[in-house]
Each structure stands twice: as structure tokens, then as C-alpha cells.
Amino acid sequence: MTDNDPNIFKNTICDVCKKKGSTRLCDFVTDYEGVAFFRNSHDFRSQKIHDTCDLPMCDKCAAKYNGIYDFCPYHQKLLSKIKIPGRF
Questions:
Q1: According to the 3-state scheme, what is the secondary structure of the chain?
Q2: 64-77: buried (b, 16+ CB within 10 Å) or exposed (e) per residue?
Q3: Are the CB atoms for 9 and 59 separated by under 8 Å?
């Protein structure tokens, strides 16, 4: 896991509160990508495995999950609904 490039947030306002500067992107996975064949090992190592929401948020509006991930309020609420009862 890598931190977000700080340059991503230059002049970007939080899309949730519309007041503070953004410092986080929503990490909720929105799509999985898969390739059946790679032409070389470089393509395999640099493959993009999934897409994320990437909604820009401030620290206050980002919901923390597992101390690693940041979710927007919409996806935090959705996550609580999609958990299998009695698991995780």
C-alpha cells in the first residue's frame, strides 16, 4: 500500500463537506480488471488490478477502515450493508 501523491490534492476541495482541502481519496473498490494473457513480465508486474472510487475528501470526512483504508460516507454506509452476518 502506498500513500497518495500529495500533488493530487493541490487546490482540491473535499467533495463531502465542500469546505476543507482534500487529503484523502476513497479506497472503495468499484471494479476489478483482469487480463488473461501478458506479453512480458513487465506488463504482468505493472498491471492494474482494480479501480477505486477516488472521491477526494478531507481527514474529517474520510471514514477510516482497518487503519489503512479511507472510505467516503456513501461507501462506508454501503460497506456496512454488504457484510455477511457473523463474518469479519
A1: CCCCCHHHHCCCECCCCCCCECCEECCCEEEECCCCCCCCHHHHHCCCCEEECCCEECCCCCEEECCCEEECHHHHHHHHHHCCCCCC
A2: eeeeebbbbeebbe
A3: no
Q: What is the pLDDT of residue 46?
A: 65
C-alpha dihedral (16, 66, 8, 10), degrees to nearest 10: 50
Q: What is the pLDDT of residues 28-76, one digit of tens each?
A: 988 877 665 667 677 666 666 778 899 999 999 999 988 899 999 999 9
| pLDDT the model gives residue 26 | 95
Are the CB atoms for 57 and 14 separated by under 8 Å? yes
Q: Which residues pair with 31 in a beta bridge?
A: 51
